[in-house]
Design goal:
It is a single chain. The longest helix is centred in the last third of the chain and has 11 residues, at 92-102. Helix content is 10%, strand content 45%. It is mainly beta. The protein contains one helix and six strands; from the N terminus they run ββββββα. The chain has one domain (18-102): Thrombin, subunit H. It is globular and about 30 Å long. The protein has one helix spanning 92-102, and strands spanning 18-28, 32-41, 45-48, 59-64, 68-78, 81-86.
């Protein structure tokens, strides 16, 4: 019987994403300081919708509320979007505090 071949392009995310609406400065040795707009986030990473030119493999440092300074690596890019992975997983209490600040408010 034939066995299914795993598709490496499938999206096996570790954590669910939460909507966000937060602009922050991404500091990059290659591209300088760039404002980026975070539109979703998890304890493992985030996505932006206004990629100023970051490419896969680029490293940035940013300062997030409740978290402080943290590095992230560009994992993927598509059109003006880009996905980043944090250098470390955010601790739950810090992540929940961050969401209070950067998540869109329900009206």
């Amino acid at each position: 019987m034939a066995q299914a071949v795993p598709n490496p392009d499938l999206d096996f995310r570790i954590a669910a994403r939460r909507r966000a609406n937060h602009t922050v400065i991404a500091e990059s040795k290659l591209r300088g300081d760039q404002p980026i707009h975070i539109v979703n986030i998890s304890a493992h990473g985030f996505m932006i919708d206004d990629n100023p030119g970051f490419e896969r493999g680029d490293r940035v440092e940013l300062r997030l509320p409740e978290i402080g300074r943290i590095e992230a690596l560009v994992i993927w890019t598509s059109d003006k979007r880009a996905g980043f992975q944090f250098e470390r997983v955010l601790r739950l209490p810090n992540f929940l505090g961050l969401l209070e600040v950067i998540s869109p408010k329900l009206r």
